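Hi there, hope your week has been kind to you so far. No rush at all, and the record is pasted right below.
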Amino acid sequence: MKTATRLLLAAALLAGASTAHAQTAPLPSLSGDWSGSLGPIEFTMHLADPAAGPRTATLDIPAQKVQGMAMRFTAPSDSVYLSIAQPAARFAGRRSADGQQLAGEWQQGLRVFPLLLSRNGATGKPAPRRQTPQPPFPYQSADVTFKNEKANVTLAGTYTVPADMGPFAAVVLLTGSGPQDRDETITGHKPFAVLADYLTRQGIAVLRFDDRGVGQSGGTLAGTTSADYTADAQAALAWLRAQPGIRKNQVGLLGHSQGGTAAVGAAIQLNGPDFLVLLASPALPGDEMLVQQSVALARLQTADAAQLAATEKVQRAMTQIIQKTADNAQATAQLLALYNPTGDARKAAELAPSFAAMTSADYRAILADRPAKSLARVRCPVLAVGGSKDVQVIATPNLAATAAALKAGGNRDVTIKELSGLNHLFQTAATGGPNEYGTLEETMSPAVLTVIGDWLTQHTKK
């Protein structure tokens, strides 16, 4: 499924180093209702945190008809841990200074997502982020649908067109990993809404759309691969080219993270894009990518060289097991020995979903992916941008690999930019860690918006 094939965060199977925080006074009770969302999926967690007696919690996910699911709840110091057994999933976060938010990560199998929970009733529904565009808009905006005929899937999105006289250059926005809506909504931020608004104001028409099975789009992500997402990108590109008032030879793709993989895949097909913008897009071999991510994430938790070396060693062993062992049952047995050498039955049960994901065809495809081979076949102009504090797609090596592959293929219209201080979402960040995304007010740095807008303006002059 798209979540597995396009997600770049490595499995957090090694416990990160934790630091105890001394407290001079008891912390306020966490009792109450806490809400947050992963893209379009809303969570509510009901916490009971009595002064004496055990903590208890339940989970509601209305979109999945989940209500009152029991959770295990612990809160050592200023940390908060909430978990469910089936499917195995866990939230790990910390209290904000005012006690009204819990910023952390939701881990389910191999998937790790930033999640910000806000206390209900204290601050009410969180106000829109400062950069989120608000109507009225100085351009035309319409809800549209288009069809991937080959897959027989209808996709829904938003099409924004400048108010000036056309014809216009145009671009399709492709989201990153996981089930994403057209705005790429995450922890209250709407990066693609911000980006589409900025570009449309610059005179560029923009199409952004919900992933399969998300929002108003049909189909499902279950069982799909990156090839399916590439096909959806091609369908979006064809629809955009067919619209009146669009310059047919100035229609491109902009892909964020694994959306970049889909963009590159479409660029090497017939009737591909006229230009590419790659934001935090992977270029290293898939197995090396996972190792580097795992170490970068671990480095946020510890500076201990031995622990970091152990993380890297286990990750490399994991990738080798999967790549060398085609039989899933045999691979699972070897992974179990690697991650659970003591044979603890409870831990084995907790790890089972991760092992199932690790041995899936999609995850095997990640490990086998060699982006440089596709990049070497791209002939259109390319802008590739990364943030120096990105811990999901490490900027320096991936940008270098992107430049080298494009150059090897003979592409001479290539612009590479590493922007200082920006994370995977292109926010100005302190650490770059995923648990920081929701705590930042900025949705997208003006620096990256300017780089994209200026490059597109230069490459789409009449």
User: Anything to note?
Assistant: The chain has two domains: 2-119, 139-285+369-459.
